[in-house]
Design a protein that fits this description.
The protein is mostly helical and about 100 residues long. Helix content is about 85%, strand content about 0%. It is built from 5 helices and no strands. The longest helix has 24 residues. The mean pLDDT is about 85.
Length: about 100
């Protein structure tokens, strides 16, 4: 399950920030795991893909470490919008 969670994180980072190493890890992680456990990948291909994934993971971690925390937290205005919608819905139900 750890690899599934990591793939989700890589997917999110690839979509939100357009980071090529995250996109590469999104594709490589399930291919490597599935290929290894199902015996579909030859050992030489596994080693090569694992080396590429390792480099991509190091680049991903270095970029994540240097990213300002505010960039990763996102825009919190959506919570204010949801609170306003909930307040308006509550007022509307009180009026009826």
């Amino acid at each position: 399950w750890a690899f599934v969670a990591a793939t989700g994180l890589f997917f999110k980072e690839g979509i939100c920030f357009g980071r090529p190493e995250a996109i590469a890890l999104t594709l490589l992680t399930p291919v490597l795991c599935g290929g290894h456990f199902l015996g579909w990948l030859p050992p030489a291909v596994e080693r090569g893909a694992l080396a590429v994934a390792l480099v991509a993971l190091c680049v991903f971690a270095a970029a994540k470490f240097t990213m300002p925390p505010t960039a990763d937290l996102g825009d919190k205005s959506v919570f204010a919008h949801f609170a306003e919608e909930a307040r308006a819905a509550a007022e509307q139900t009180e009026q009826t």
